[in-house]
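In response to a reviewer's request, we include the raw inputs and outputs for one of the modeled complexes. The two entities were modeled together in a single run.
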Amino acid sequence: MTQPSIAGIGAHVDREVTLRGWVYNSRGSRQVRFLILRDGTGMIQCVGGLADLGEERFAALAALTQESSVSVSGRVRTEARAPGGYELILSDFALLGASEDYPITPKEHGIEFLLPRRHLWLRSRKQHAVLTVRATVIAAIHEFLQREGFLHVDAPIFTPSAVEGTTTLFEVEYFGDKAYLSQSGQLYNEAAAAAFGKVYCFGPSFRAEKSKTRRHLTEFWQVEPEMAFADLEDTIVLAENLLEFVAARVLERHRGLLAGVLERDVAKLEAVTAPFPRVHYDEAVARLREAGRDFAWGGDLGAEDEAVLSEQFDRPLHLHHFPVEAKAFYMAPDPQDPRCSLSVDVLAPEGRGEIVGGGQRTDDLAFLEAQLEKHGLPREPYEWYLDLRRYGTFPHSGFGLGIERTVAWLTGRRHIRECIPFPRLMRSISP
Amino acid sequence: MTQPSIAGIGAHVDREVTLRGWVYNSRGSRQVRFLILRDGTGMIQCVGGLADLGEERFAALAALTQESSVSVSGRVRTEARAPGGYELILSDFALLGASEDYPITPKEHGIEFLLPRRHLWLRSRKQHAVLTVRATVIAAIHEFLQREGFLHVDAPIFTPSAVEGTTTLFEVEYFGDKAYLSQSGQLYNEAAAAAFGKVYCFGPSFRAEKSKTRRHLTEFWQVEPEMAFADLEDTIVLAENLLEFVAARVLERHRGLLAGVLERDVAKLEAVTAPFPRVHYDEAVARLREAGRDFAWGGDLGAEDEAVLSEQFDRPLHLHHFPVEAKAFYMAPDPQDPRCSLSVDVLAPEGRGEIVGGGQRTDDLAFLEAQLEKHGLPREPYEWYLDLRRYGTFPHSGFGLGIERTVAWLTGRRHIRECIPFPRLMRSISP
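The model returned the following C-alpha cells for the whole complex.
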C-alpha cells in the first residue's frame, strides 16, 4: 500500500492508500462522518460510514478533534463536489497524536491572539497559501536571475559599518567589540560585481525601525542584483522583467489559491507586463500636488505619497531621478541634471508603494569621497569600498527587492507580517 | 556590434565584438601584446599587434596595468593554445578606469595580507572558482529539495532563546530588550513541518565560537530540511541522496574548474554515490580506539576523531546513534536502546569531518519536558515548541547541512574562510 501525498492523490484514483496528517475539520451525522485531512501538501475529504466501520470505530472517528494527527486508509474516488476533487472512502484509521482544545478554531481570531500562536497559525488555510506563494516567489527570483547569467554571491550579515545611515542599526556584541546587522548587501555586491560581472545576494536584512506600520518588519528578506557595466536603464529593464516573470509564475502555479483561498483579484496580476510606466520625480511632485498633497521638491516620498501615485496606474511603476539628497550617498548623480540621482524605485500598484529601490552607483572616486564627507560618514570603514573606484572603476547598477512587500502585493495581504513565516516586529520576536 | 560575455564568446567566432572587463594579466614583445581580459564570466586572451594598432595605441595597450577596466573590440578566433580556446584580435580598445599599484599581484600572498583585501581577492582565479562552485551547490540544493516536494520556509534570525545551549550565542540589543541570533532554524522547522509536511530553511546561522579552527566561521550558511512523519532512516536516505546530487551537479558543471584551477582530484568526487557506509557510534568508538585514540564512550567526536574515521572511507559516512547526552535536548532516544539517540552526522571523506548533523526529533511531550529540565533550559520560551507535541504530535526528522564545509570539501579548500564571499571570523569582520 503506497503512502502518497494529498497533492499527488490524483494518481491513485480507485486505489487503496494510507495517508498521514492532521484533522482540519470534522462534521457529519449519525450515519456518516466527513473529515477534512491536511498533510501539508493539500486537503482531502475522508468519508467514514457507520456501516463500514462499525459502531465503536465510527464513534472513535466522530471523537477526533481538530489538529489530531491521524493515519487514514481507504480508497480514493473522484468526487467533483469535494474540495480538491477527490475523496477517500475510509476503511480504517488510527489516532497518532491527540489534540485537546486546539486554540485556533474555525471562528475569527484577532491578530493579537494569532501572532503569539504563529507556530500553529501557519497550519491555517490562508497562511498556508500565502507562504506557499512566498516559496514560489523566491524560487522564481533565483530561476530568473540565474537564467539571466547572475551568480548568487552572499553578502555578509555582520558589518562593521552602516550602509544607509546609523539610526536604524541593530548592534551586536562581537567578542568585546561592536558589530552591526546588515541593512543591505549593496556595498558588498559592488565588490562581487567587479569579480563576477552580474551577481545577486539573497538573505535577511535588518532595520531597527521604530515605525509600527504594516510595511515594516525588523527582519525582512531581500534579493539584491548588481551588474557591472550597466546603467540606470539596465536596472529599470531588469526590475520590470523580473517582476513580470515572478507575477506570471505565481499566476501559473497558484491561480486557484489566489482566487479561491486568498480572494485575490487575479486580473490585477495579469496586468503586470513590462514595460512598466515611468514617472520622473519632477512629474511625481506635480502629480502629488495635483492630487492635493502638500509635497516639497527634494524629499523622499512617504507611504501616503506612494499610495496616491501607485493608485494612478494599473501595474507597477518606475519612479526615477530622485533628488541626490533623497537617496543614499553612493547613488550616481545624473550628468545631465546633477540635482537628480540615477535612481529608481518601483512602486507596486493598488496603493501599495515601494517594493524595489535601486539605480546606478557612482563610479567616481572624488564624488564618492565628497559624499562620505557630506553625509558625515567615517572614512576608514569605507576604504575598501573606495578601492572599487581606485582599481578599475566601472559603471554599475542594481537594486534591492523586498520579498515580503512583494508577497503582500501579489497575495493581497494588507500587512507584511503575514508574508514571512515568523515575523519579527518591534514588540514581538516570539515564537 | 554585439556585447557578449566571455563565457558566451564561442557563439561569436569570426565576428567583431566589444567586451568590457578588467586586465587580468598583460605580457608581450615589442611587436605584439597578449592581454588576458576578465569580465567576471570568464577570461579571454586579447592579441594586439603593433602593425594593426600603430605605435601610439600599441604603447597605450602595453601601458595598461593589472585590474584596469577597459573596453576592447576585435574579431573572435578559435585558438586552441589560448586559455578557454578563443582569442580576440584587437582592433581597438579604451581605458575606462585606471588601476595603479593593484595590491594583489601574481606572486604568492599570505592569508594575513589577503583577508583584509577580500573585496579584491574575489577577483583572483581560485577564489572566483570556489565561489562559482558555491553558487552551484546552493542552486543544486534548492533544486533537489523542491523536486522532492520540500517547501522553502524561512526560519527567523532573531530568537528569544537558544536552540543548543547558550555559550555560543550572539546577543543583540532589541528595543531595550535582548534578542539572540539564530544558531539553527531547527525548532521553527518543526512547526513548519506540521503546517507544510516537508520543509527546508536556508539562511545564515551564527555561532560566537572562540575556536579559531579552519572549520569555524562566526557566520555561516546552512540548509535545514525537516520532514513530517519521517524517521531516522528517512533522514539518512535524504542526506545521502542530496549529497550525491550536489556532488554530481558540481562535477557536471565545473569539472574543468575543479581539476584545472583548483587542482582537485575529481575521482574523489566521482566516488560520492549513495548509499554511504554507516557506522554506529559504538563501532566508531571501537575504530577510534583501534586507531590508537583514547576515546571514552559518551561524548561527541572532536575534529581529530572525525578526521581519523573519515579517512577510513572513500565517500561520506553516516555516523549514527550518538549517546543521548552528546546531542541536543530534542533528539529522540532509540526505543530499542535508550542510551542512544536517533541521530546521525555525515562526515565528509578525506579527513574532513562533519558536514551534516540531524536525526529524528522526539515527539513525546513528557520526554521533551524532562529534557528541558535536565538541560537546565527555561520552560517559558519553549512553550510554543511544546505545543507541537500537544496538538497532534507526529514523528519527524531532518538535518542541517553546512554550506561552507560542503564547499570546502568539494573544492578541496583547507579552510572554510575561502568558501564564503566575505568570511566573518572571531578577529575579522572587515571588509
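As requested, we also summarize the result in words. Chain A touches chain B through 94 residues (CB under 8 Å). The longest strand of chain A covers residues 16-28.
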